[in-house]
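Reopening this ticket.

The earlier resolution said the output was attached, but the attachment link was broken on my side. Pasting everything inline this time so it's all in one place.
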Amino acid sequence: MRSLEEALVSLDIGVFNKIHSQTTPNDKRSLLACQSAVREIIGQYAYLEIGSYVGGSLQPHVLDERCETIISIDKRPHAAADERGFEQIYLNNTSEFMLDNLSQLSKEGTEKIVCIDADSSEIKADRFDPHPDLCFIDGEHTDSAAWRDFKFCYEVLSENGAVIFHDSMIVYNALSRIIGFLHDSGEEFKAYNLPDNVFVIEIGEFPLHRFPVISEMLVNNHIGYLSALKYSDQYRRFANRSVFRALRNLKLKFTKANVTE
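Inline output:
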C-alpha cells in the first residue's frame, strides 16, 4: 500500500482496505479530502468520532502521525433505531474487537485512541483536552440522535473546527434543524454536502472548502445530489404502487388540487 501521505494526496481509498467501512468509494474520497484539508490548515489535529463500530473509518487517522489524539465514542448497542423504520443490528460491537482490528493495522497508532462506551448525552463536555478539531458523526441514524451528537460535538469542538456527518440522506431533518440553530445563534459557519452522502459543517474560520480537491467536489455537486435522490427513489416507487395511486386520484377528484386555473 502507498504511504499515507501519497494516499491522501491522490485520495487513494486503499487506505480503508484492512477493515470494512460502511461507506461508499465516494464517501471515502470525501473523508480523505477533509482529512487532508485539516492537515493543511492546522498540521497536528485531534479527531473525535461517534459511531466507530469495528473501526473502518478510523483507519486513516490511526495511520496519520499528524493525528495526535483519537476519541471514539460508541454506546456499542446490539441494535440501534433508524429513521428508515427498522433496527440496525451490529455484531461484534465492542471496543475490544475494534482495537484488536486496528492494532493489526498499527499498534502505535492504536495507542492514541481513547474509547468511551457511552451515548454522547452521558458524557461531560469538559473532560476533553485537547479539544477535537474534526468530528465525524456516524452513530444512531435517527434525527434525534444526530441532533444530540451534534450538540455534544459543538460543545467540545475547538474554537475553529468541522463536524462531518455520514448518511446525510437519512438524517436530513436533523441537519436542517442544526443549520437553523447555527443561523439563529449567529455562529459563523459553512455547510455543504460532499459525494456521496458526507455532510460537512465548518464552524468558525476553518475553510476546508478552499482545499482544491474539495472545491472541485463542490463545483461538481451533482454527484452527491443525485446519489441522495436515487436513494430516496425506493420510497417513490413504493408510493406509486397502484393502490396508492388510486387513493390519490380519488382524493384529487374531490379536492381538485391538481387543477390549474
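Reporter confirms the inline version is readable. The chain has ten helices and nine strands. The radius of gyration is 20 Å.
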